[in-house]
Design goal:
Layout (H helix, E strand, L loop, with lengths): L2 H8 L2 H21 L7 H5 L18 E7 L25 H4 L23 E4 L4 E4 L3 H4 L5 E8 L5 H10 L9 H9 L9 E5 L27 E2 L18 H22 L2 H24 L6 H7 L9 H13 L4 E6 L8 H25 L6 E6 L3 E6 L10 E4 L3 E6 L7 E3 L1 E2 L6 E3 L2 E2 H11 L9 E3 L2 E3 L15
Parallel strand pairs: 1-7, 1-8, 4-12, 4-15, 5-6, 5-7
Antiparallel strand pairs: 2-3, 4-11, 8-11, 9-10, 13-14, 16-17
């Protein structure tokens, strides 16, 4: 049966009266709690929308998240996980006692040997914390005392698509809400004139780059108003945001009011929550016509701030530009800001390729930490850096004195976090001497997700959504808050 016809049949007189009574009571209560709701559509439109929780489960350490996702799987032993003894093992076959029969991808499963490939890059200790950082990350090395390194992360997936999907949604199969959508659903927005979840994708054309697709910031089975909004680097930041020729702001307002009336009539007839989302998104688009141009205009930024982000900061779509934009979004209390940077999938020619990725991202990441700290925003902004998994200690293909590649490795990898209630200047977890297995304090992806929600004031077990006969959550039926990471 057509859902509209079914709805009309179900809506009996008794149900109609019951629903009406509840609705009238709800309106009366809302008018007492929020008088602005009934004072006019324009006033209501400018009020930030609260989330389903109506607040937090407990006091939040972080008000917002900036997630610097490095797609492809950065090599932990070439960046942050220093393993000096590997130089003595160069070229030797990875012992079976270390590999323990663990699965390999189809790209290296046919190799007859698995030669150990130590990093060719120099490591030094930095800051009061003494954190080891590769020469590839000189700017990040300058802010290590603000960072919390997690060197014992583990994931389930061994290939990119399920790996990235797992990090972003808590499930390897597509269709679940992304982390930013869960945060928006639970906590709502703190700025009525911008989306609560914004996505920025760096420009790049790398031969080994994995695709970035919109479902990674999708809302899954949550209402679509919680999905991320991707800002473009060319033309309108959001498609169709500008008025067309011959249409002024007043005309646009009148058109939206008319469409809203029609949508409300349809909403009353069908009860479809997606119609309510459509109304809200039209209104958001109208408000963004004034808020987004101001956001994107960096002409007021002091020169010393632009210099801090590096020479590419004025290049729209560059990682440096997106880092600056992330800070500007954080200033405006956008709840969840996600940056994607690709090109970290180095199965061959890793030394050459990884230099390029670090040059593109290192200065921007460090500048973002410094900039947030200078403005007093780092304290309640959680910054996250990392990819979907790590890389193998053994070389994929031939190993030479100055060249090697590395395959995917889910058993251990490194991420860092800063601000937002995370302990600064610490390193959590350890890997074995081969950087192949976790030796101390393992942190699963679901543990990481539970900890991120905890810092936002959310109990990950209590933020759920019922669909398909059961309640779902970001961490599925797993996950524990990693308390040693918390201030």
């Amino acid at each position: 049966m057509h859902p509209v016809d079914e709805h009309r049949l179900i809506l009996t007189r008794r149900q109609l009266l019951g629903k009406s009574a509840v609705s009238i009571g709800g309106i009366a209560l809302a008018s007492l709690l929020r008088p602005d709701i009934l004072s006019g559509a324009n006033n209501f439109a400018t009020a930030p929308e609260s989330g389903i929780l109506g607040g937090t489960h407990f006091p939040a350490k972080a008000k917002r998240v900036i997630y610097l996702f490095q797609s492809g799987g950065p090599s932990q032993m070439d960046l942050f996980d220093h393993k000096p003894m590997l130089e003595k093992l160069r070229g030797q076959d990875l012992p079976a006692s270390i590999r323990q029969g663990q699965r390999l991808t189809g790209m290296t499963s046919g190799q007859k040997t698995f030669p150990v490939a130590p990093s060719i890059f120099e490591f030094k200790q930095h800051g009061q914390s003494g954190a080891w950082v590769s020469e590839l990350m000189p700017h990040t090395a300058g802010v290590v005392d603000d960072l919390c390194f997690i060197k014992s992360l583990q994931t389930n997936a061994i290939n990119h698509d399920p790996g990235i999907t797992f990090l972003q949604t808590g499930a390897e199969q597509p269709g679940r809400p992304s982390m930013g959508s869960w945060a928006s659903y639970g906590l709502g927005s703190a700025n009525a004139n911008l989306p609560s979840f914004v996505v920025l994708v760096s420009n790049g054309n790398y031969a080994a780059a994995q695709p970035i697709y919109a479902r990674l910031w999708g809302s899954g089975f949550l209402p679509t108003k919680y999905q991320g909004v991707k800002f473009r680097s060319a033309g309108d930041p959001v498609l169709y945001l500008s008025n067309t020729d011959g249409v002024d702001s007043n005309s646009r307002r009148q058109m939206l009011d008319g469409i809203a009336d029609l949508n409300r009539m349809r909403l009353d007839a069908t009860g479809d929550p997606e119609i309510a989302t459509r109304i809200a998104q039209y209104e958001m688009s109208f408000r963004m016509q004034s808020s987004v141009p101001d956001l994107m205009d960096v002409s007021s930024e002091p020169q010393h701030v632009l210099d801090m982000y590096g020479p590419e900061v004025r290049k729209p779509g560059s990682f440096a530009s997106n880092c600056l934009m992330a800070r500007r979004l954080a200033e405006r209390d956008v709840r969840f800001i996600q940056l994607y940077h690709t090109g970290w999938d180095q199965h061959s020619n890793l030394p050459k390729d990884i230099i390029g990725r670090c040059q593109e991202t290192d200065q921007g990441c460090a500048a973002l930490i410094k900039d947030l700290k200078m403005r007093g925003l780092l304290e309640d902004t959680l910054v996250i850096w990392g990819g979907e998994f790590g890389r193998t200690v053994y070389s994929q293909g031939a190993l030479t004195a100055d060249n090697y590649g590395r395959d995917h490795h889910p058993r251990c990898f490194t991420m860092w976090m800063a601000g937002g209630g995370v302990k600064p200047g610490i390193s959590h977890g350890e890997t074995d001497d081969y950087c192949y297995n976790v030796a101390k304090d393992p942190v699963h992806v679901h543990d990481l997700q539970a900890t991120i929600l905890h810092l936002l004031g959310i109990d990950h077990e209590r933020l759920t959504y019922k669909t398909q006969g059961r309640r779902f959550r970001l961490t599925d039926v797993h996950g524990h808050v990693v308390k040693p990471l918390l201030v």
